[in-house]
Design goal:
The chain is of the alpha/beta class and 193 residues long. Helices cover 39% and strands 17% of the residues. The protein is built from six helices and seven strands; from the N terminus they run E-H-E-H-H-E-H-E-H-E-H-E-E. It has a five-stranded parallel beta sheet with strand order 2-1-3-4-5. A two-stranded antiparallel ribbon has the order 6-7. Helix 4 (90-100) links the parallel strand 3 (71-76) and strand 4 (105-110). The longest helix is centred in the N-terminal third of the chain and has 22 residues, at 15-36. The chain is globular, with a radius of gyration of 19 Å. The protein starts with a strand and ends with a strand.
């Protein structure tokens, strides 16, 4: 199987959406991994990163998660996220860095009802201003079920572009281009590269 690492990036105010994206990836695996030979690996800084001292937090997250990711899903609620040295927030830095690296980046804005007492008006205003400057197509979701459907659609789109999900034979390159396989029905498989 080909492993596709999917980083889930967001500020701290959308934990339910983060959980929903991770569950959507697990559900996709359950339904498709065996016959598509692709496994989606969710990556979240809070449970996938390894603690490391001596570097800024965002640098550690970038090195361990973002730079190793194949696909990035970015979620926004009412916050921009924590400040980063070189960007408006860590989440914005992840979005821009992944896009600059040519990775598929899917951006979703929550339209779910929020307790007004939890909203910082300045942060919400900054997020709205940033949203207007985005160069690309983003989407909005009204609930986690809506988000789940949109994430599945995005993953299917990405797998099609990356030519993943189909077996290769007769010396064709694998989806990652690292190894070519030759299949001879009379013998075992043999690495060719």
């Amino acid at each position: 199987a080909v492993a596709v690492r999917v980083m889930i990036a967001s500020p701290s105010d959308v934990p339910g959406a983060r959980d929903a994206v991770e569950q959507a990836l697990h559900d996709w695996n359950q339904a498709n991994a065996h016959h598509r030979s692709v496994v989606l690996m969710p990556w979240r800084w809070e449970n996938s990163s390894v603690p490391l001292m001596g570097q800024p937090v965002q640098s550690v997250i970038n090195a361990q998660g973002l730079d190793q990711a194949d696909v990035v899903v970015v979620l926004f609620g009412t916050k921009m996220g924590g400040q980063a040295a070189s960007s408006l927030s860590g989440t914005v830095e992840e979005l821009v860095r992944a896009s600059d690296q040519g990775k598929p980046v899917h951006v979703y804005f929550s339209q779910e009802a929020v307790d007004p007492a939890t909203i910082d008006p300045d942060d919400l205003s900054s997020l709205r201003d940033y949203k207007r400057t985005l160069d690309g197509l983003y989407s909005e979701f009204s609930n986690v079920s809506d988000l789940t459907v949109q994430v599945w659609r995005a993953i299917e789109h990405d797998l099609g572009l990356l030519a993943l999900g189909s077996a290769t034979t007769s010396g064709e390159s694998s989806a990652t281009g690292d190894v070519a396989w030759s299949v001879d029905h009379e013998s075992e498989r043999e690495l060719k590269g």
